[in-house]
């Protein structure tokens, strides 16, 4: 299929009447649904049926703008009708989900209309009918990277055009595994909202640099002024990060499958993927044969990984088994203890000439941990991972793990070891305790943000000023 055939003649906008009718009906339907997606009250079925009729009629009216999704949109109406005719039990949208294959049409600016009963990760755990209007981000230099050393056929970077309430949250992903289905299919794609990632990064970095008096390099400062540049940077980061999972010298039991283990192992896996993206970006930046746009964005990826990790990841969310937060803390402390990050005279500074080598070295430490894991029992691997982190971060004074193997129940099942890990096994440092208080209103303001959100809306500019005054 050609690119011309994949370009809608009349792109749908958030103000399109049929989209607005669909969005309103889906939002109204959510109020009638239970957590599993069903409509349990028989008295609500007539209203639910009316909302379904509105949704399917709107989808049919919008379908000509999405010829690349014709089969999916046809089956979507079938799934909705079957759900209504069956009495609104737990929904099953397997047929339409399997027909939706956005990874086959990665064309910059191509739109998709996505409607499913689903939960939104980092948003709602309720599997409600959500609708989202999206657009693919696929710049030429990303296509070149993906066609070469960084093949990732499942990766689909996107941006928001509009959405129902489930995405008025922190959720920045659209994953097929969140959709209500009768059986688990083979998943063939995963989409990430690069515009949301970039927009919240810009808002948080602007405030954090202000609060810590950090002088940004000129090219890093450019990220604050250019949403498109920043979201393309995140697309490059995500492309390499996403393909890193399940690659390399991994433990026999992959970290990112559903199994119970200490949360700090997930910290290392996510950080490993980010530091792989960092390392590869260093290599691309130095590669004179790489496309100029790829080399430029490679440098920006390095800034993005460091700043997003140390400023947003470290202090976002609760202190209950926050594995991304722990990864951010670890990167900050590692850079500080290797003397490329400084907190002097109440100002933060980074020695950029030496920073890349130090960050790459942390990635190498994690890679070595993984490489040695196949020669170790699981318990020994867990202990070695803990030792790696505790060599840089100070454990909770109440920690049993910090007392060493002699204090742990090593003769029982692994669950006993996991139970001994504290919710906040590695508490925030004094630096982060102070920073979190100042940054809290800014981070909270990023819920629901998109690439089209005005950077200074929702009081963002005043939030940073108020935080500084409060400090």
Task: Please bin the fraction of helical residues.
Answer: 40-55%
Largest sheet: 5 strands, mixed
Terminal Cα separation, in Å?
58 Å
Number of domain units: 2
Enumerate the strands of the largest sheet in spatial order, edge to edge or round the barrel: 1-2-3-5-4
- Mean pLDDT across the residues is 93
* Estimated structural class: alpha+beta
CA radius of gyration: 23 Å
- DSSP strand tally: 7
Task: Sum up the overall morphology in one term.
Answer: globular
Percent strand = 5-15%
Q: What ranges have pLDDT less than 50 throughout 5 or more consecutive residues?
A: 1-5, 455-471
Order of SSEs, N→C? Answer: HHHHEEHEEEHHHHHHEEHHHHH
* Tally of individual helices: 16
Brief write-up:
This protein has helices at residues 17-30, 45-62, 70-85, 94-99, 140-147, 194-212, 218-225, 227-244, 263-286, 292-312, 323-337, 352-373, 378-390, 414-419, 430-444, 460-470; strands spanning 111-118, 128-136, 155-163, 173-174, 190-193, 341-344, 347-350. It has 471 residues and is of the alpha+beta class.
């Amino acid at each position: 299929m050609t690119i011309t055939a994949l370009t809608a003649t009349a792109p749908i906008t958030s103000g399109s009447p049929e989209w607005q009718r669909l969005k309103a009906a889906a939002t109204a339907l959510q109020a009638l649904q239970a957590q599993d997606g069903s409509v349990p009250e028989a008295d609500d079925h007539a209203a639910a049926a009316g909302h379904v009729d509105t949704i399917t009629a709107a989808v049919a009216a919008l379908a000509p703008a999405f010829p690349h999704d014709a089969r999916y949109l046809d089956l979507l109406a079938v799934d909705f009708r079957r759900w209504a005719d069956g009495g609104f039990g737990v929904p099953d949208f397997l047929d339409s989900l399997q027909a939706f294959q956005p990874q086959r049409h990665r064309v910059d600016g191509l739109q998709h209309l996505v409607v499913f009963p689903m939960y939104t990760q980092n948003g709602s755990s309720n599997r409600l009918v959500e609708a989202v209007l999206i657009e693919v981000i696929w710049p030429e230099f990303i296509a070149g990277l993906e066609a070469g050393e960084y093949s990732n056929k499942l990766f689909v970077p996107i941006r928001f055009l509009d959405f129902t309430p489930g995405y008025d949250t922190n959720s920045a992903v659209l994953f097929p595994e969140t959709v209500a289905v009768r059986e688990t299919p083979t998943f063939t794609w995963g989409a990430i909202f690069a515009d949301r990632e970039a927009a919240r990064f810009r808002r948080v970095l602007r405030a954090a640099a202000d609060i810590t008096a950090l002088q940004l390099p000129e090219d890093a400062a450019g990220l604050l002024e250019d949403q498109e540049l920043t979201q393309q940077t995140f697309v490059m980061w995500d492309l390499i990060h996403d393909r890193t999972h399940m690659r390399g010298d991994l433990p026999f039991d992959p970290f990112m499958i559903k199994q119970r283990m200490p949360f700090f192992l997930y910290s290392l896996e996510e950080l490993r993927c980010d530091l792989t993206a960092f390392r590869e970006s260093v290599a691309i930046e130095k590669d004179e044969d790489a496309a100029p746009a790829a080399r430029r964005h490679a440098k920006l990826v390095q800034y993005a990984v460091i700043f997003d990790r140390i400023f947003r990841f470290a202090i976002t969310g609760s202190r209950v088994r926050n594995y991304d937060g722990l990864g951010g803390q670890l990167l900050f402390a590692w850079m500080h203890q290797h003397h490329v990050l400084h907190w002097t005279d109440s100002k933060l500074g980074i020695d950029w000439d030496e920073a890349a080598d130090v960050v790459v070295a942390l990635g190498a430490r994690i890679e070595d941990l993984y490489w040695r894991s196949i020669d170790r029992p699981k318990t020994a691997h867990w202990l070695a991972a803990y030792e790696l982190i505790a060599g840089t971060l100070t454990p909770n004074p109440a920690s049993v793990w910090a007392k060493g193997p002699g204090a742990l129940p090593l003769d029982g099942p692994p669950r006993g070891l996991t139970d001994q890990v504290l919710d906040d096994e590695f508490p925030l440092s004094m630096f982060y305790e102070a920073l979190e208080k100042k940054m809290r209103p800014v981070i909270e303001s990023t819920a629901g943000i998109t690439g089209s959100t005005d950077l200074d809306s929702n009081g963002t500019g005043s939030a940073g000023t108020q935080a500084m005054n409060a400090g």
